[in-house]
Amino acid sequence: MNTTPVTMAPASEVGRPEFGRDDVDALADDLVRILGPRGVSALPRALTRASKDGSGMSPILTAQQPLGRVDLVCYPKSISQVPAVVRAAVRRGVPVTTRGKGTGNYGQVVPRFGGLVMDTTSLAAIVEVGDGSITAEAGARMITLEQAAWDTGQQLWMYPSTAQSTLGGFLAGGSAGTGTIVHGRNHMGFVAALDVVYAHEDAEIVCLTGDDAQPLVHTYGVAGVIARATVRLEPLQPWRCVYTSFPDHHAAFGAAMEVRDVSPAPRLCSADGAEISSHLPSDEGIPAGRASLRAIVDAAVVDEVEAIVQRHGGRVEIVRDGLQNTMRLSTISYNHPTWWLQKAQPDRWFHMEVQGDALVERLDEVEAVYEGGMLHLEVGHGRMFGMLNGIYRDPDTVYAGVPELEKLGVGVHSPHQSYVDLDADRIKAIAARTDPQGLLNPGRWLS
Ligand SMILES: Cc1cc2nc3c(=O)[nH]c(=O)nc-3n(C[C@H](O)[C@H](O)[C@H](O)COP(=O)(O)OP(=O)(O)OC[C@H]3O[C@@H](n4cnc5c(N)ncnc54)[C@H](O)[C@@H]3O)c2cc1C
């Protein structure tokens, strides 16, 4: 069930490129010529900002800080500048880490060996909203894409709970979110086309479509810079945001298993026990002292969902509709409940990403693996998925839980490492061709 071995390795030295201060200074001059003086910065505040991501959610990664610090950050404003920036960096032998909004959880946007960070957030144009697809620049925000899709009676196949994050960052570093129940994880089939830039001395934009684009997805920017992408839309459904509550999380999670099977399928279904729920943003749909199940479901199945909830001893608190409400519900799904928990009680909690129906079927045993264990549950594509939160003591305790969880039939993915975490050998083989000098976001390989 596990997709990759859960590694305990600290930040790696594998692939450290050789470059020096002179190379960085020469690159800075090149970039001023390409982007203008406002398009490049070496100011300490800009460098600090460009060297951080959401990995503060992991106490293990936090203890390894700084995971890296960049020497230079640049801000291309047009797609045509992207290959020019990459060409300059390759000719100077300086590594390039491409950055979206910097919300990734695992340190993969932290420039491990310094060099250049290319901040893509100014590349935010929506190029075209077609029938069944949307084309946008890499720095466009997922929330903006969803809005543009709704304006034409369509919706994104999927978007993450960090809806402010970028299209490029989600495709390169994300894996799941609203829409995953129907379409699965890791963007399979989501991407129709990618415009990418490889780390070659004569780099230009390369257009990849269909099956040729998929291998570049979820590669953390190590095999190519995504400059622009076309992703799939589908007809907009009449969504309703159903907030329900239960006396305890056994009841809520049992109901979630049944909500998974309604047809048409929900777009999202998340559930928490009373303690995690109490740390979510205040909402009349999430009453104090009760477990919470929140779902985005088609209007046609609201009554069916209510019947399921009642059968499990719960009640419907409120039903809402509209884009803002679906977004609001999405932003308290996936890793966000853990984030709220950690915000309320800093330095107390860690989490593991877990999956499998055993999460619900063997809930007490699963939560007992870690001291203070509390599961945040998501209905996944065909099987349950979640974040198992526990009280943090030390790395050994965290990793000692992994075989215990696996014995219970639970798949585990560790959010405490900054390596390429899926299909590393396949991606390494692609990168050998697209980035022969190993300059794209180096430091992501274990060996
Ligand atoms: C509280 C919280 C909740 C989250 N919830 C979710 C969730 O529901 N689902 C989910 O999948 N993730 C989630 N994440 C992880 C992350 O926020 C998302 O995956 C997000 O979509 C990443 O986008 P970003 O713009 O912030 O990317 P960044 O963090 O900037 O980058 C992520 C990775 O992609 C690479 N990259 C960025 N842009 C490009 C580009 N143009 N070309 C090539 N490589 C690029 C970076 O180098 C890095 O390796 C969550 C994180 C937090 C902190």
UniProtKB/TrEMBL annotation:
Residues 65-236 form the FAD-binding PCMH-type domain. Signal peptide: none annotated. Gene3D superfamilies: 3.30.465.10. It comes from the Bacteria. InterPro entries: FAD-bd_PCMH, FAD-bd_PCMH-like_sf, FAD-bd_PCMH_sub2, Oxid_FAD_bind_N. GO terms for molecular function: D-lactate dehydrogenase (cytochrome) activity; D-lactate dehydrogenase (NAD+) activity; FAD binding. Pfam families: FAD_binding_4 (PF01565). Residues 1-20 are annotated as: Disordered. SUPFAM superfamilies: FAD-binding/transporter-associated domain-like (SSF56176). One of its GO terms (biological process) is lactate catabolic process. This is FAD-binding PCMH-type domain-containing protein. The lineage of its organism: Bacteria, Bacillati, Actinomycetota, Actinomycetes, Mycobacteriales.
